[in-house]
Amino acid sequence: MSFVWQKEFETGIKSIDDQHKILVSMIDELETAVVEKKSDEFLEVILSKMIKYVAKHFSHEEKTFIFTKYSDADNHMREHEKLKQQVLDFHTKVQAKTANVDQTILDFLKTWLTEHIMKTDKKYIAHFNSKNVQ
Ligand SMILES: [Fe+2]
Ligand SMILES: [Fe+2]
C-alpha cells in the first residue's frame, strides 16, 4: 500500500501542486513507517511534521483566498478548520498514548486529501487563474 501523486490531483497552479505533492509524500512516509512497525515515538514525530505542513498549506490557500477575494472562501476554510481540529485531537490522543497511528487514520487522511483536492480545491482553479496565482 502506498499513496502516490496522481495526475488527476493536478490543479495546474504550481505553488498548490508542489504543496499537495509534499502532503501526499508525507502521508506515504507515515504509512511506510506504520507498515515497517516503527516505534510510537518515531511515528509521532512524522505525524507532527505532517500536521505542521497541513497547517502551512491551508494557510497558503487561505491567504490567497483573501488576497484574491475568493467567493467560496468561507465554505472552503470550514473544511480546513474541521480537518485541522480532527488531526489535532488525534495528535493529542497519540501523545497521551490513548490512540495509535494506524491504518485507520492513514485511510482517513488519504481519503480526506483525495476528496478535498478533487472536490474542493479544484473549485478555485478558474478563479486563481483569473487572478494569475501561480
Ligand atoms: Fe489544498
Ligand atoms: Fe483546500
pLDDT under 50 segments (min length 5)? Answer: none
Secondary structure class reads mainly alpha
Q: What's the total helix number?
A: 5
| CATH class descriptor name | Mainly Alpha
Q: Helical percent range?
A: over 70%
Number of DSSP strand runs: 0
What is the ordering of alpha helices and beta strands?
Answer: HHHHH
Approximate strand percentage: under 5%
Q: Termini separation (Å)?
A: 32 Å
Assembly type = single chain
Question: What is the topology?
Answer:
Blueprint: H1 14-35, H2 40-68, H3 73-95, H4 103-120, H5 125-130
The structure holds fe (ii) ion (2 copies).
One fe (ii) ion is lined by residues 61, 76, 80, 116, 120-121.
How does this structure look, described?
It is built from five helices and no strands. Helix 1 (14-35) packs antiparallel against helix 2, helix 1 (14-35) runs antiparallel to helix 4 (103-120) and helix 2 (40-68) packs antiparallel against helix 3 (73-95). The mean pLDDT is 97. It has one domain (13-130): Hemerythrin-like (Four Helix Bundle (Hemerythrin (Met), subunit A), Up-down Bundle). The chain is mainly alpha-helical and 134 residues long. 73% of the residues lie in helices and 0% in strands. The longest helix is centred in the middle third of the chain and has 29 residues, at 40-68. The site of one fe (ii) ion has 6 residues, from helix 3 and helix 4.
